[in-house]
Amino acid sequence: MEIYDKVRIMREVNQWSQEDMAEKMGMSVTGYAKIERGQSNIHYDKLVQLAKIFNISLSDLISVDEKKPTWYFRENNTQNIQANYYATDEAILLELEKTKLVLDNAQDLIKIKDELISQKENEIKALKEIINLLKEKNI
């Protein structure tokens, strides 16, 4: 895996935009995007800065051992740890992509269920208001 691939992956793992990264590095979005596309040479000082931003060692950032799988861990605000695995083996990458699609589908289903629950709660609230109005008229 090339350094620019690792930089893009680490940015995505941290759920940062290219704009966020450009700001953190004190450079233009275009300049940062060129780093991620491999269209710009990354000087040592930028490598050090990237490693600090991602909270990884410089050697982890610049190692290009194709046989060694890469794991990136990120702790979010709810104390959950998110792990991302990256490797060059095609079968593993396909399996990872399949798993991501399943996860996306599950998240979509959860969102739909949440919307249905919200809709039902609104219906219950409206029915309770109708019941209260009917009770007031009968009094």
UniProtKB/TrEMBL annotation:
Q: Does the keyword Coiled coil apply?
A: yes
Q: Which UniProt keywords apply?
A: Coiled coil, DNA-binding
User: Can you name one GO molecular function term for this protein?
Assistant: DNA-binding transcription factor activity
Q: Which domain of life is it from?
A: Bacteria
Keyword Transcription assigned to the entry: answer is: no
Residues folding into a coiled coil are: 103-137
Checking Pfam families in the record gives:
HTH_3
Recorded GO cellular component terms are: cytosol
Residues of the HTH cro/C1-type domain:
7-61
Among InterPro entries, the record links this protein to: Cro/C1-type_HTH, Lambda_DNA-bd_dom_sf, TransReg_Diox_bact_type
Q: Which PANTHER family match?
A: HTH-TYPE TRANSCRIPTIONAL REGULATOR (PTHR46797), METHYLPHOSPHONATE SYNTHASE (PTHR46797:SF1)
| Protein name in UniProt | Putative transcriptional regulator
Record the organism: Haemophilus parahaemolyticus
